[in-house]
Design brief:
Number of helices: 22
Largest sheet: none
CATH topology of the domain at 7-139 and 374-388: Serine Threonine Protein Phosphatase 5, Tetratricopeptide repeat
CATH architecture of the domain at 7-139 and 374-388: Alpha Horseshoe
Oligomer: single chain
Shape: globular
Radius of gyration: 24 Å
Distance between the termini: 11 Å
Order of helices and strands: HHHHHHHHHHHHHHHHHHHHHH
CATH superfamily of the domain at 7-139 and 374-388: Tetratricopeptide repeat domain
Amino acid sequence: MMGGRPTALLTAEELARSGAVGAAVEACYEALALGDREPRIHALLAHLMLEGDFYDQAIAEATKAIEIDPDCSAAYLALGLAYDRRGGMSDQSVLVWHELAEVAPDLVTAHVQLGEAFAAAAFEDDAVASWKRALELDAKEARATYNLAIASLKREGMALALPLFRQAGELDPSQDELFFTLLGVHEAPAEPIDIERVKPTREARLGAAGLALRAEDLFTAADLVRLVLDEDPDDPEALALAAYAYLKQEAANESMACALRALSLDPELPTALYCLGVVYSRRTGLNRHAARVFIALAKRAGTHALVHVLLAESLLGLQKFEAAGKSYRLGVRLDPACVRARFGLAASHLTEGRFAEAQWEIRRAAYYDTKRQGLFWRLYDEYAGAGED
């Protein structure tokens, strides 16, 4: 592997990172004109072709990079994604993801993608083994758990698969994001909350408590909520914050009590509806109650995709598959990148025997998940750094 980076390649990288795909492609070809034995150029060009959905060209460029250097992990990623997105190439996809898992054995996504490739090729046992390996590397890997839920649905039915779907959802950070969106807190504070510096007003304390919860500082949040409740034990917004704090500590009974009390004071409070619905959804036999709560939440916050996903999961538990499918489809329309909605819609298709549609949704979930992670640049930079040492 060549050391250092020629000027033409650096220019192509800068353009690609800035989103100037067309100019970056031209810069790659200029770099290739100076010498085509640099795997980074081919890997970058494969990534750019993939961004433009030119799958055959991406496959060709990634293959060249790997031929030059079989350790070019970024090229394996681009090649595997190109095979998956092109469709109908599951055998080749299995081989590529297996190679990437060997080149980068700690890359969780390589094992997740390998499992999905195995599943597409009807090697279900190998698929399950790959997803379990991913969870050994990262127990919080939501996508591996979603896939295990799909596998469980195929083998054992919805009753046993639904807990896995919910477990995956709890691992997915989008669920907590929904609560804070409903609360109106979009980012964690840059510095820890100092109670002594919070103004002694209800609004300031509740605002600071929400920020503390966003930063996962449950103790500070509890102290601030307690100060509000000491002055007014019937403050619904403070009770809803307490319900969420208990929910994060897996104290379901306490969370339920606080949420119910908040809703008795303000029946339409979205944050309290969220907490109560989540508590009900985790309790065996309470799917009907969860569905009712999430229907009420959908009326108050129906523009958020995950609200409809939570409702759909409860409907699945009630075996109302058609209604669940409608809710999942609405979630996907509101947010096409919602991985949880995509996997849920795949499950809905499977209950109707629509296997091709289910597989398509899983591929779309993989597309958005890998794009969100920015894996190419991580692997590319690691590979480039190793070559310059």
